[in-house]
Design brief:
- Helices cover 34% and strands 7% of the residues.
- The chain has eight helices and five strands.
- The protein has helices at residues 5-25, 90-104, 110-116, 137-143, 169-179, 197-206, 216-225, 256-271, and strands at residues 162-165, 188-190, 211-214, 235-238, 279-282.
- A five-stranded parallel sheet has the order 2-3-1-4-5, sandwiched between helices.
- Helix 7 (216-225) packs parallel to helix 8.
């Protein structure tokens, strides 16, 4: 018996359905990437060096530029590099002293300066002149002023035989150590650094001193107050030692006004008293 046409069509449909089922059950094969598809980025390994980004600036190598002549700093000239020399002649020492005194008192006239100027008659002349080239010149000069006798001036407390005036406390300490062998009595240290003036007044009042070393300001105050006396004084030595800045006591702004006030206000008037016999010397 022949099949009907509809039956044959149904059979064909069943066959087509089986074919589609068998194709979908098979594993899908990976298709080749399309031409316009972007490849996936590869994972970077730690061993691969990091690529430099174009946006990162490249480190500039430092170049040592030589300073131009215009921008180069100019060296400041050193102040006070000239060595100060004390003249050997006493007349020249007077001239030097008067020169710096005129610098200290610029308002005084020549007539007024002539009344207070230092003359050779005010200068100390030892019986034996020590050698200026010797390292012990200060010691030897002060030694010539030492006397064992009291003389007619019996007051000894606060009345040294030699007074040395220095520019700084450090120089005072240095000279005190040097001059301890000159006298058996303590050497008076007269400066304001770490020592109150009341302590020095008490020391001068209660003790005798043959040698006193001090700075201009403290010496001037003690002389004006009468704590430091001149009745036994024989030598007033002006220490012209230069410090590390090449400064000298006669030309320092901090010391010269007090230094020349000692001469003008105290020593010069006292030198007119016949009972006093002190002289001045630059060293």
């Amino acid at each position: 018996m022949a099949r009907n046409t509809d039956d044959s069509d149904d059979l064909q449909n069943d066959f087509d359905l089986d074919d589609s089922f068998s194709e979908s059950s098979e594993p899908e094969q990976q298709s080749e990437p399309a031409a316009n598809a972007k490849p996936e980025p590869k994972a970077k390994s730690k061993s691969e060096p990091k690529a430099k980004s174009k946006s990162e600036p490249k480190p500039e190598t430092q170049k040592h530029k030589q300073p131009s002549a215009v921008s180069a700093p100019t060296k400041k000239p050193k102040l006070g590099t000239k060595k100060f020399t004390v003249p050997a002649s006493l007349a020249d020492q007077c001239t030097l002293w008067n020169k710096y005194m005129h610098k200290t008192y610029p308002a005084l006239t020549q007539l007024e300066l002539s009344d207070i100027q230092l003359t050779p008659s005010h200068m100390y002349v030892p019986s034996t002149e020590p050698s200026r080239d010797s390292t012990s010149y200060v010691h030897d000069l002060v030694q010539t002023a030492m006397s064992t006798g009291k003389g007619k001036n019996k007051v000894m407390h606060g009345a040294p035989q030699a007074l040395i005036i220095c520019s700084s406390a450090l120089r005072v300490v240095e000279l005190v150590k040097m001059l301890r062998v000159v006298t058996k009595r303590p050497v008076a240290k007269l400066f304001s650094r770490h020592i109150k003036i009341d302590t020095q007044k008490k020391m001068l009042e209660e003790g005798a001193a043959d040698v006193a070393v001090g700075t201009p300001n403290r010496v001037l105050r003690l002389l004006r107050n009468g704590d430091l006396k001149v009745n036994r004084l024989k030598l007033v030595a002006i220490d012209c030692w230069q410090d590390e800045k090449m400064r000298v006591v006669v030309d320092m702004d901090d010391t010269r006004s007090d230094l020349f006030a000692i001469w003008r206000d105290v020593l010069l008037p006292a030198s007119k008293n016949p009972d006093y016999n002190f002289k001045l010397r630059l060293m």
